[in-house]
Amino acid sequence: MTPDTQLDFAPDLLKKIIQDSLNEIYLCDGETLKFLFVNRGALQNLGYSQDELRQMTPINIAPTFSLAQLKEMVQQLKEGAEEKLTFQTMHRRKDGSTYDVEVHLQFYTHKDKSYFFGIILDITAANETAAKLEETLAEATAAVQAKDNFLAAMSHELRTPLNAIIGFSQLMHNSVFGDLANQRYKDYVLNILNSADQLLEMVDEILLARKLEIDGIKITGEVYDPIEHTAEIVKMFADTPRRDGKQVMLIRDATAPKLVTGDRGVGNVMQSSIISDALRHTGENGIVTIRWYSVNQETLKCRVEDEGEKYPEHVLQSFGEQFLARDAFLASEKHKGFGLGLYICKRYVEARGGELTIGNREEGGTFVEASWPAANFKAQF
After folding, report:
1. What pLDDT, in 10s, does the model give residues 63-112?
2. 72 and 7, same structural domain?
3. N or C: which end of the chain has fewer CB within 10 A?
4. Which residues, including other chains, have CB under 8 Å from residue 291's CB and lie 6 or more apart?
């Protein structure tokens, strides 16, 4: 069945559909722009009679357009530069009230006469919804900004007393002004020092995680030796005199790259966070190892292992999320963290096209391993 025979099949039905449509439908003279036909939807929306509208042009109901502007616009249709024009404007009713519309306009010629055919949609409700969404978004943005300001202020207010607690605790722990007579007091000082360090680390992680959400990840490129860089981080942990006999060891693997192009600052954040988590998790006198290595000089890996307890599988799946799931948190009381450190590391690793894997070691303990294509770091072996 051809389009023509389809139209012939039910001409009265098609006329009824056009006539009774609740969308506004207009047919205008191609030269004078006067309305030749206006359907029921247009009559109801505008409040004019059919006879009144037949004496008018679109200019009479679209106050935002002048006759010159309208003719310039429809000239594109007449010249064939455009098959259809779609634009938004405003219609004015007989009583003077206005409403927002979206116009779909086409140009036709038939038996040496030309016509403009328009279907108009009332978009007042849609625009009102969009305005409400924008208002809600603005309120949400303001709330987020207020939260960020609060976090920044709290960061300063928390760091100041925490740094004082850490500083005085270090003095007491190191017996700078004389030894503490009672061993129990020494143990208390060590607990204070460890707790303050942990709290300060959590504050820093919360702020850094929020900063990543707002600013994204910006990574610079510099050439450096990843092994020596990691050795500096390991030394920093080795010089901390309060690890219950725990050790951090750097394993120098022969397959490790000699140089990489990356961001030392990001490397500091990642490795320090993972090592710190591993030290909290490993047992007393336990050993945390960190190793850089490669697979056929194609895949670059950095792996941190600890000697703590194994985690249940459902707990492992929660690590790397922005916050640990509640059951994971409760199941990892010895870990004492929110999971933000691993979330931050995961974001950094993925930003360089890598993958962060967290799992249990067969011989006991857990591991965290970052893996990237070696080409992403321009690794030199």
Report:
1. 888 888 888 888 888 888 889 999 999 999 999 999 999 999 999 998 88
2. yes
3. N
4. 250, 251, 253, 256, 302, 303, 305
